[in-house]
Amino acid sequence: MNVSICIAQEEHYKFAQEICDTMEASALLRGTGIAKRSPKYIQKKMQNNDAIIALENGKFAGFCYIESWEHGQFVANSGLIVHPDYRHLGLAKQIKKKVFEYSQEKYPGAKIFGITTGLAVMKINSDLGYKPVPFSELTTDPTFWEGCKGCTNYDILERKEFKMCLCTGMLYDPNNKKPEEIKFNKKVLTRLRQIKQTFLKK
Protein backbone atom coordinates (compact mmCIF):
# COMPACT_ATOMS: atom_id res chain seq x y z
CA MET A 1 0.00 0.00 0.00
CA ASN A 2 1.56 3.26 -1.19
CA VAL A 3 -0.87 5.78 0.31
CA SER A 4 0.00 9.41 0.91
CA ILE A 5 -1.81 11.38 3.63
CA CYS A 6 -1.87 15.16 3.31
CA ILE A 7 -3.82 18.32 4.06
CA ALA A 8 -6.68 18.51 1.54
CA GLN A 9 -6.52 21.34 -0.99
CA GLU A 10 -8.62 22.79 -3.81
CA GLU A 11 -7.28 20.12 -6.16
CA HIS A 12 -9.13 17.54 -4.07
CA TYR A 13 -12.59 19.11 -4.52
CA LYS A 14 -13.34 16.44 -7.14
CA PHE A 15 -13.42 13.77 -4.41
CA ALA A 16 -16.13 15.50 -2.33
CA GLN A 17 -19.07 13.56 -3.75
CA GLU A 18 -17.26 10.23 -3.44
CA ILE A 19 -16.37 11.04 0.16
CA CYS A 20 -20.01 11.77 1.02
CA ASP A 21 -21.23 8.64 -0.75
CA THR A 22 -18.66 6.48 1.06
CA MET A 23 -19.67 7.93 4.44
CA GLU A 24 -23.35 7.21 3.82
CA ALA A 25 -22.74 3.71 2.48
CA SER A 26 -20.58 2.89 5.51
CA ALA A 27 -23.27 4.05 7.93
CA LEU A 28 -25.91 1.95 6.17
CA LEU A 29 -23.65 -1.10 6.20
CA ARG A 30 -22.93 -0.78 9.92
CA GLY A 31 -26.52 0.11 10.78
CA THR A 32 -25.40 3.20 12.68
CA GLY A 33 -26.33 6.83 12.56
CA ILE A 34 -24.14 9.41 10.87
CA ALA A 35 -24.47 13.15 10.46
CA LYS A 36 -24.76 13.59 6.70
CA ARG A 37 -22.53 16.17 5.02
CA SER A 38 -22.90 17.66 1.55
CA PRO A 39 -20.12 17.80 -1.06
CA LYS A 40 -20.22 21.59 -0.69
CA TYR A 41 -19.54 21.26 3.05
CA ILE A 42 -16.62 18.91 2.41
CA GLN A 43 -15.18 21.31 -0.18
CA LYS A 44 -15.46 24.17 2.31
CA LYS A 45 -13.38 22.17 4.78
CA MET A 46 -10.76 21.63 2.10
CA GLN A 47 -10.78 25.33 1.21
CA ASN A 48 -10.11 26.26 4.84
CA ASN A 49 -7.30 23.70 5.24
CA ASP A 50 -9.45 21.84 7.75
CA ALA A 51 -9.31 18.37 6.23
CA ILE A 52 -6.95 15.45 5.75
CA ILE A 53 -7.15 13.18 2.71
CA ALA A 54 -5.45 9.89 1.88
CA LEU A 55 -4.71 9.00 -1.75
CA GLU A 56 -3.04 6.21 -3.66
CA ASN A 57 -2.03 6.99 -7.23
CA GLY A 58 -4.74 9.63 -7.49
CA LYS A 59 -7.46 7.39 -6.03
CA PHE A 60 -9.42 8.36 -2.93
CA ALA A 61 -8.49 6.14 0.02
CA GLY A 62 -9.59 7.98 3.16
CA PHE A 63 -10.64 11.29 4.71
CA CYS A 64 -11.22 13.18 7.96
CA TYR A 65 -12.01 16.83 8.71
CA ILE A 66 -11.66 19.32 11.55
CA GLU A 67 -14.32 21.49 13.19
CA SER A 68 -13.63 24.15 15.83
CA TRP A 69 -15.99 25.54 18.46
CA GLU A 70 -16.03 28.27 21.12
CA HIS A 71 -13.26 30.31 19.45
CA GLY A 72 -10.96 27.34 19.06
CA GLN A 73 -11.24 26.08 22.65
CA PHE A 74 -12.76 22.83 21.40
CA VAL A 75 -11.84 20.94 18.24
CA ALA A 76 -13.54 17.89 16.77
CA ASN A 77 -11.99 15.43 14.32
CA SER A 78 -15.03 14.28 12.38
CA GLY A 79 -16.11 12.31 9.36
CA LEU A 80 -13.34 9.71 9.51
CA ILE A 81 -13.88 7.39 6.56
CA VAL A 82 -11.79 4.84 4.68
CA HIS A 83 -12.69 3.60 1.21
CA PRO A 84 -13.73 -0.11 1.24
CA ASP A 85 -10.69 -1.02 -0.89
CA TYR A 86 -8.35 0.19 1.87
CA ARG A 87 -10.03 -1.10 5.02
CA HIS A 88 -8.39 -3.47 7.52
CA LEU A 89 -4.94 -2.17 6.57
CA GLY A 90 -4.45 0.26 9.46
CA LEU A 91 -5.19 3.33 7.32
CA ALA A 92 -7.90 4.68 9.62
CA LYS A 93 -5.41 4.82 12.49
CA GLN A 94 -2.86 6.62 10.30
CA ILE A 95 -5.42 9.22 9.18
CA LYS A 96 -6.67 9.73 12.72
CA LYS A 97 -3.13 10.20 14.03
CA LYS A 98 -2.37 12.71 11.26
CA VAL A 99 -5.51 14.79 11.83
CA PHE A 100 -4.97 14.62 15.62
CA GLU A 101 -1.43 16.01 15.31
CA TYR A 102 -2.51 18.60 12.74
CA SER A 103 -5.33 19.76 15.04
CA GLN A 104 -2.85 20.42 17.82
CA GLU A 105 -0.65 22.44 15.45
CA LYS A 106 -3.52 24.52 14.07
CA TYR A 107 -5.40 24.93 17.36
CA PRO A 108 -2.74 24.82 20.12
CA GLY A 109 -4.20 24.26 23.58
CA ALA A 110 -7.62 23.17 22.29
CA LYS A 111 -9.50 20.25 23.79
CA ILE A 112 -10.00 17.66 21.05
CA PHE A 113 -13.14 15.59 21.16
CA GLY A 114 -15.41 13.33 19.18
CA ILE A 115 -18.62 11.37 19.45
CA THR A 116 -18.92 7.96 17.85
CA THR A 117 -20.74 4.64 17.94
CA GLY A 118 -17.83 2.81 16.29
CA LEU A 119 -15.70 0.59 18.52
CA ALA A 120 -12.78 0.81 16.09
CA VAL A 121 -12.75 4.61 16.36
CA MET A 122 -13.02 4.39 20.16
CA LYS A 123 -9.95 2.15 20.19
CA ILE A 124 -7.98 4.57 18.01
CA ASN A 125 -9.05 7.52 20.17
CA SER A 126 -8.09 5.67 23.33
CA ASP A 127 -4.62 4.93 21.94
CA LEU A 128 -4.18 8.64 21.19
CA GLY A 129 -5.01 9.63 24.77
CA TYR A 130 -8.74 10.39 24.59
CA LYS A 131 -10.95 9.28 27.46
CA PRO A 132 -14.72 8.63 27.56
CA VAL A 133 -16.62 11.58 29.05
CA PRO A 134 -20.24 12.68 29.49
CA PHE A 135 -21.56 15.10 26.88
CA SER A 136 -21.46 17.85 29.52
CA GLU A 137 -17.63 17.96 29.15
CA LEU A 138 -17.86 18.62 25.42
CA THR A 139 -18.59 21.92 23.71
CA THR A 140 -21.83 23.66 24.62
CA ASP A 141 -21.93 25.41 21.24
CA PRO A 142 -25.41 24.65 19.82
CA THR A 143 -23.98 24.73 16.29
CA PHE A 144 -22.14 21.49 16.99
CA TRP A 145 -25.30 19.69 18.03
CA GLU A 146 -27.14 21.19 15.06
CA GLY A 147 -24.71 19.19 12.96
CA CYS A 148 -26.21 15.99 14.36
CA LYS A 149 -29.57 16.67 12.69
CA GLY A 150 -28.61 14.56 9.70
CA CYS A 151 -28.15 11.51 11.95
CA THR A 152 -30.92 8.90 12.20
CA ASN A 153 -30.55 8.98 16.00
CA TYR A 154 -31.10 12.74 16.36
CA ASP A 155 -34.53 12.22 17.89
CA ILE A 156 -32.91 10.32 20.76
CA LEU A 157 -30.37 13.09 21.36
CA GLU A 158 -33.18 15.67 21.34
CA ARG A 159 -35.38 13.67 23.72
CA LYS A 160 -32.47 13.35 26.14
CA GLU A 161 -31.90 17.13 26.04
CA PHE A 162 -28.49 16.70 24.37
CA LYS A 163 -27.09 15.00 27.47
CA MET A 164 -26.72 11.52 25.96
CA CYS A 165 -27.25 9.49 22.83
CA LEU A 166 -26.12 6.20 21.27
CA CYS A 167 -22.76 7.85 20.60
CA THR A 168 -20.00 7.87 23.20
CA GLY A 169 -18.23 11.16 23.87
CA MET A 170 -14.43 11.07 24.02
CA LEU A 171 -12.09 13.91 24.93
CA TYR A 172 -8.37 14.67 24.79
CA ASP A 173 -7.41 17.48 27.17
CA PRO A 174 -3.86 18.79 26.58
CA ASN A 175 -3.89 20.33 30.05
CA ASN A 176 -3.82 16.88 31.59
CA LYS A 177 -0.09 16.24 31.42
CA LYS A 178 -0.47 12.77 32.83
CA PRO A 179 -3.95 11.62 31.86
CA GLU A 180 -5.35 8.59 33.60
CA GLU A 181 -4.48 5.46 31.63
CA ILE A 182 -7.62 3.67 30.49
CA LYS A 183 -7.31 0.19 29.04
CA PHE A 184 -9.60 -0.23 26.08
CA ASN A 185 -11.93 -3.18 26.59
CA LYS A 186 -13.95 -4.01 23.49
CA LYS A 187 -16.21 -6.54 25.25
CA VAL A 188 -17.17 -4.10 28.00
CA LEU A 189 -17.84 -1.25 25.56
CA THR A 190 -19.88 -3.54 23.31
CA ARG A 191 -22.05 -4.56 26.24
CA LEU A 192 -22.44 -0.96 27.42
CA ARG A 193 -23.44 0.11 23.91
CA GLN A 194 -26.10 -2.63 23.78
CA ILE A 195 -27.50 -1.50 27.13
CA LYS A 196 -27.50 2.11 25.96
CA GLN A 197 -29.32 1.21 22.73
CA THR A 198 -32.02 -0.68 24.64
CA PHE A 199 -32.46 2.12 27.19
CA LEU A 200 -32.36 5.15 24.90
CA LYS A 201 -34.66 3.76 22.21
CA LYS A 202 -37.51 3.33 24.67
UniProtKB/TrEMBL annotation:
Domain N-acetyltransferase: 11-163
Gene3D superfamilies, per database record: 3.40.630.30
Transmembrane segments: none
InterPro entries, per the entry: Acyl_CoA_acyltransferase (IPR016181), GNAT_dom (IPR000182)
One Pfam family here: Acetyltransf_1
Protein name according to UniProt: GNAT superfamily N-acetyltransferase
